[in-house]
Amino acid sequence: MYHLGDLGGYAPFVNEVVEFLAAHGIEGVQGNYNEAVANDREHCGCKYEDPVQAEMAELSFAWKKGHATQKSRDSLRELPSERTFLAEGKRVKLFHAAPHNNNIYWYEDRPEKFFLEMAGKADADILVYGHTHKPYKKELNGKTFVNAGSVGKPKDGDPRACITLLEITPETVTADFIRVSYDVERAAASILSSGLPPYFSESLRKGRQRSRLDRRLRKRNLDTEKEKRGGL
């Protein structure tokens, strides 16, 4: 079992997630969010569809940097950018977003030329990654491409956690995207009680990144931020 990075983003569980993975011996790779938090960057390198998303992401990133313990930062900093191993004679490479670039959004509708270029850069038969939070599997010219989706913040309209099970044989590669139900409302309540904007609890409930907010939700987000600042 492996994780593909961006641990604890957009929810108040960064330290708990790092501790859980360490306690259970689950290894993985470093996401762009992890690298930015660990090294106290000014920006997480995330992509935004509109100014609202950008504003909310900045608030979440600042919260994360302010609450991640030094132990968590050290663990995130030590994560490798990729992992490679052999399975049934096939070379498998794991990374967060794309080979040699942790901020590229690699959606399924990218041109075939892009997929093949990435396969060449990865020097692998099977490429497994995440970052977009939208799972898919694609095969081209004998190469297999798998986006494993997201456990904690799906963006495909299904709020359930996504776990990807790969079965590799000498002849075939299959990917089973397993959706696991959990107490979404409890997680959403924890987001609200942490002081993070309601935007993130609503996104979690919908299983989708909200590109636009209705007036009521936008006002709630702004009111929450004003309360945090204590009128400063």
What sort of overall outline do the alpha carbons produce when their principal axes are compared? globular
Strand content: 15-25%
Number of strands: 9
Number of domains: 2
Largest sheet: 5 strands, mixed
Describe the structure concisely:
The chain is α/β, with parallel strands linked by helices and 232 residues long. 38% of the residues lie in helices and 20% in strands.
Summary keywords:
alpha/beta, Purple Acid Phosphatase, chain A, domain 2, single chain, five-stranded mixed sheet, two-stranded parallel sheet
Q: What would you note in describing this structure?
A:
With 232 residues, this protein is an alpha/beta fold. The protein contains eight helices and nine strands. Helix 1 packs across helix 4 and helix 2 crosses helix 4. The termini are far apart. About 2% of the residues have low confidence.
Topology:
Elements: E1 2-3, H1 14-23, E2 27-28, H2 32-38, H3 51-67, H4 70-77, E3 82-87, E4 90-95, H5 112-122, E5 126-129, E6 136-140, E7 143-147, E8 161-168, E9 173-180, H6 184-194, H7 198-206, H8 215-229
Parallel strand pairs: 1-2, 4-5, 5-7
Antiparallel strand pairs: 3-4, 6-7, 8-9
Helix pairs in contact: 1-4, 2-4, 6-7
